[in-house]
Amino acid sequence: MDTDAQLSERDRSSDPDEGQEERSRSARFPTRSLRRRLLLLVAACLAFVGLLSAFVLQPFQVPSASMENTLRVGDRLLVNKLAYDFGDGPRRGDVIVFDGIGTFRQDAPEENPVRGALRAVGAALGLARPADNYYVKRVIGVGGDRVTCCDKRGRIMVNGKPVDEAYLHPGDAPSSDPFDVVVPDGKLWVMGDHRDKSRDSRALLGQPGGGMVPVDKVIGRADWIGWPVRRWTTLDRPSSFEGIPAPAGAHG
Q1: Which residue among the candidates 53, 81, 137, 198 is catalytic per the annotation?
Q2: Among this protein's residues, is 137 annotated catalytic?
Q3: In terms of C-beta density within 10 A (0-12 exposed, 13-18 middle, 19 or more buried), how is residue 201 classed?
């Protein structure tokens, strides 16, 4: 009886049809262990991207035409959050992303909490437009600078030196409105490259904050256009800001 049982067991295990069917079933339906591993891998990837976006390099989708032609609506920027953590703060000519609450707008935008959370996740991955309180502009003046418009040739001047702004949108004047401001320490004077379509520091003169952006509201420096592929490029600081004299009364 023992011999018959062994032979019967051997016959069942060596049945080629049964073995093939078992392998086919396993291929069609991954084991629970494999599914768990895949879920853990996806979760780890999302956590890594979230940490990278939160502390190092955040994607940012350009929401408006205020920086054309340097940036276009829908461009995905890569914002370097560490750019100012190990040295000087924002410099003239840098393209920055900042939180405009308290300056460019007084209150946070109202939004359904669930929709706001989904938008925040999508924005962190560069897949959705940022909240309405985030802006991208170019730094024209830093703390202590005197920024005026304009000289006889219509150019903006910083500390008395005219700036040739080759990055301006074709046909735009440096500014259609005259101004003469001194940037307080710890603040920035910012403007869009498409001056005719940009609501920037000029529009907020006389309002709380005077259009000046606090340095601690800066999210980071926009260093690259990462998407679409045909727009891949670095965003270098223009040479036109070289040679600007130090602000009056500055030391060193």
Answers
A1: 137
A2: yes
A3: buried
